């Protein structure tokens, strides 16, 4: 089988209209965006491999952080996030979310900002004046003064923005549980779209089974690398 | 040297300048995500966001002269907005840059002491009109 996916135009149209059902949510989640690799031309094979790795790590970081924010994952990591809610930079996400005039907007706003802030942290911590500065996980191979790193950071920032827009929409209209399902499904669609040859879903009976297979193979791959 | 800057005497522009000054103090205590959200919410609730949207981009090219609305209620609304921005969520006691910036701006606005005291009690001392708060507010008047 092949996964049915929607394009950017349809995704934006769906963001502007009302989501009525679970089916709508899954349809919205099937927008994969484009792979980081497709942003470059004339890459050597080792560069392709490295960029693919960075793409995987970045998408995994996004998925991992959102899962923790939704309270799914290792208890010690969830506790660390909860403990740090009163400390900068996460405190900013709490403050900014509290400022939302519509109370229903506060939780999705917090998830959005906290996710962006946590994705912006690097070894040096965070910058007070630029607390949201999303960057890919790793250094893109390239010559000095090449703008490959900038392209990668912009790609990841757009990827995260697309996914979070969808997550917020689902959260507002269908609730928190569906919002997390959206995050999982949407991430898996992207992973499949970025490297379909990796997952061998031809013999899967349903979309659900195919997505499960993508998740299984991807986590196995991540475990092998680490 | 701002050789080509335009000299402006407009209460709206002056308010923008004051907001920027207060936010400057706030930005030393918190990140841009937080202060932006705070300022946007307060200014929207008080119907002042349009003033910022209208003038904020040009502010760098102006030499702003002190000028305040002649309507007392409008002036008080502006002062209250500045107090609210600087005292919402961020603790001013552990972040003195906030109250210093606010004090500098409020001093220029020509409010009566009674008005200032009311605002200090409401936004900086928790809102309770007790004897202790009155005493504290009297002492804090020096700053404003």
Calculate Rg of chain B over CA atoms. 15 Å
The first-to-last residue Cα distance of chain B is 30 Å
What is the total number of structural domains of chain A? 1
What does the overall shape of chain B look like?
globular
Question: Considering DSSP H and I runs of 4 or more, what fraction of the residues of chain B is helical?
Answer: 55-70%
Global mean pLDDT of chain B = 88
Helical amount of chain A: 55-70%
Q: Based on CA inertia axes, which overall geometry of chain A fits?
A: globular
* N-to-C SSE string of chain B, H for helix and E for strand: EHHHEHHHH
Biggest sheet strand line-up of chain B: 1-2
Alpha plus pi helix count of chain A? 9
Strand fraction band of chain B?
under 5%
Question: Termini distance of chain A?
Answer: 31 Å
Outline the low-pLDDT stretches of chain B: none
> How many extended strands of chain B?
2
Please describe what this structure looks like.
The complex is a heterodimer of chains A (226) and B (144). With 226 residues, chain A is an all-alpha fold. Chain A has one domain. Chain A is built from 9 helices and no strands. Chain A has helices at 8-16, 22-29, 45-69, 75-83, 90-98, 103-120, 148-174, 176-194, 207-225. Chain A is globular. The two termini of chain A are 31 Å apart. The mean pLDDT of chain A is 90. Chain B has a two-stranded parallel ribbon. By secondary structure, chain B is mainly α. Chain B has one domain. The chains are: A mainly alpha (226), B mainly alpha (144). The interface between A and B is medium-sized, with 20 and 15 residues.
